[in-house]
Write a structure and sequence with these properties.
By secondary structure, the chain is α/β, with parallel strands linked by helices. It is built from 15 helices and 10 strands. Helix 1 links the parallel strand 1 and strand 2. The relative contact order is 0.16.
Length: 361
């Protein structure tokens, strides 16, 4: 059995779209041999209006309680937007736990979100969040920085520029974001973290090696960032040795997306084929990986026992459970009513929360 530790579901336009998207997600997971999967909810950031991403994920989990994990996201608008009441971070975390979420997703380290929030990752503003996560030992998927090439207009791939993922002098540089994160790791060594996209350290495995040595609670996920596989392809023997040495610290993930962020259907195949074979093969068609002028990928052919941990066991150890946490219907109903009211106050709909309420009834 394979567990995909990093997928996204939504956004949706209406309840018909929600139903269709749910079917598409399950079909894609089935086609890739995925037994269980974790929906990561990015949260609400300044400048965004979509408010029902968490409800969308919870709807999918309610429909598939034995198969779907949810890492909930937070509403960050109060931290950066003048005139918006700030909701205490710890209150939101307690709410996510009460709903039945299996963990927390943070996108605060992505350069555009880091810029929008206006606070360093190690700012005291976020201290209650880190302290709560560490104290309660709740697993957290954290996206920190982006590929180094995204700060250079000459090296940013066309597909990344098309999606707005390139950064100028108004964004904190990668070295600064990484340093802020390392400060958090040192201050809170008990944080149970999976660092998305291999912490964007695939081009510098000694950095990844030291990170795992210094912080035993940290894992790295394999969701592409296709630059990761290109970097490993340049040094396949070094990459293979790293994966074998740290076989219990790496999680299989694909960053599969739906709707407006739809990824290509062979993304999961690409990661698995790279892990399990020594083949040389082209990057499959995917709007978040192509066009890209770099050469073909070469797999690292890992042993079966290493693959077994990467594909399932490591995630189960990370979340501390072989099955998703049960949802709490009363808490979810109250959450949905609040989300619908919040959406109306912002002049938008919340179809997933409405559908979730009906599903509970």
């Amino acid at each position: 059995m394979i567990i995909d530790s990093h997928v996204h579901f939504g956004p949706v336009t209406d309840e018909t779209h929600l139903e269709a998207l749910g079917t598409k997600m399950l079909d894609e997971m089935d086609a890739n041999g995925i037994g269980r999967f974790c929906v990561a909810v990015s949260g609400l950031y300044p400048g965004t209006r979509q408010v029902d991403s968490l409800a969308t994920a919870l709807w999918l989990k309610l429909r598939n309680p034995q198969r779907v994990y949810v890492f909930g996201g937070l509403d960050w608008t109060g931290i950066a937007e003048a005139g918006v009441p700030e909701t205490r971070l710890t209150s939101q975390l307690e709410m996510l736990r009460a709903l039945g979420c299996d963990g927390v997703k943070l996108l605060t380290g992505k350069p555009d979100r880091r810029k929008a929030l206006g606070h360093a990752l190690d700012s005291d503003v976020f201290e209650p969040l880190y302290s709560w996560l560490e104290r309660e030992s709740v697993p957290c998927l954290w996206h920190i920085a982006d590929p180094a090439e995204f700060w250079n207009p000459d090296t940013t791939p066309e597909w990344a520029r098309r999606n707005g993922w390139w950064y100028d002098g108004t964004h904190p540089p990668k070295a600064q974001i990484d340093a802020e994160a390392m400060s958090v790791f040192r201050r809170h060594p008990g944080l149970r973290l999976s660092l998305a996209h291999f912490f964007f350290a695939s081009d510098n495995l000694p950095v990844a090696q030291q990170l795992l040595a210094d912080f035993p609670q940290i894992r790295l996920d394999l969701a592409p960032g296709v630059e990761m596989l290109h970097n490993f392809t340049r040094s396949p023997d070094e990459a293979r040795a790293f994966f074998i040495e740290h076989a219990d610290r790496i999680l299989y993930g694909t960053d599969t997306g739906m709707a407006a962020h739809s990824t290509g259907p062979k993304r999961g195949w690409m990661v698995r084929h790279w892990l399990g074979t020594n083949d040389t093969f082209n990057v499959p068609d995917d709007p978040f990986m192509l066009p890209d002028e770099r050469p073909a990928l070469r797999g690292i052919g890992l042993p079966a026992d290493v693959l077994q941990g990467l594909f399932a066991g490591n995630f189960e150890t990370f979340v501390g459970a072989e099955r998703p946490r049960p949802l709490a219907p009363e808490a979810i109903a109250a959450f949905c009513r609040n989300r619908i009211a919040t959406a109306r106050s912002r002049g938008v709909d919340c179809p997933s929360a409405a559908a979730l309420l009906r599903e509970l009834a």
